[in-house]
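#lab-general

N.A. 3:47 PM
ok so I finally got the sequence cleaned up, no stray characters, all 180 residues accounted for. can someone with queue access submit it? mine expired

B.Y. 3:52 PM
send it over

N.A. 3:53 PM
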Amino acid sequence: MTMQHIVESGMEFGPYPKDRCFYIEKSECYSAVRDHVKMAEFLLLRVTDENSALWVIEAKSSTPRAETKPNFDSFIAEIREKLTNAFSLGWASCLGRHPQAKAELPKDFKTLDLSRADVVFCLVIRGHKEEWLPPLKDALENELRSTVKTWAFSGNSVVVINDSLARENGLILTPTGGDS
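B.Y. 4:20 PM
back already:
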C-alpha cells in the first residue's frame, strides 16, 4: 500500500494510506478556485468499524494569545475560513462538482458515504502548551458552531491539539525543524 507524508508548519504528518489522504492545498481542484479562497492543508479519511470521519487538518507553528484582541479574533476567523473552505471543496469534489476531482481524488473518497460520514475540523499547533489549547478550542468551536449544527455533525467535531497530542493520536510523526 502506498503511503503519504505531508510536511507542514515544522511537523511531518502521516504516514497515511494514499487512498485516504487528499492534500487539498496542493490539489488541482484548489488551483482552479484559489483566487480569494483560503485553504486548510489536507483531508484525512479515518475509518473504523463503526464509522467514517473526514478530518480537515490545518497546521500552524504559532498562534496569538486569546487576550491579544483583535489579532486572536482574526486568527480564529481565518482558521474557520480555511477549515470550512477545505470541507466544502472536499465535499464538492466527492460529489463530482469539480472536473479535476475525478483524476486526483483518492479512491476511498470516491466511495465515501457522505450521508453517514462525520467531519472533524482539526487545528494542530506545533510546540503549543496544553494549557493554552482550551481558549483556542472554545473560540474555534464558537466560530464553527453554525457549520457543525447545519450539517448535523457530532458534538466532537472541533479538535485543537498540539504536536504531542497529534503524535499520540497518530496524526504526525516527529517535528521536522522548519516551517513550511
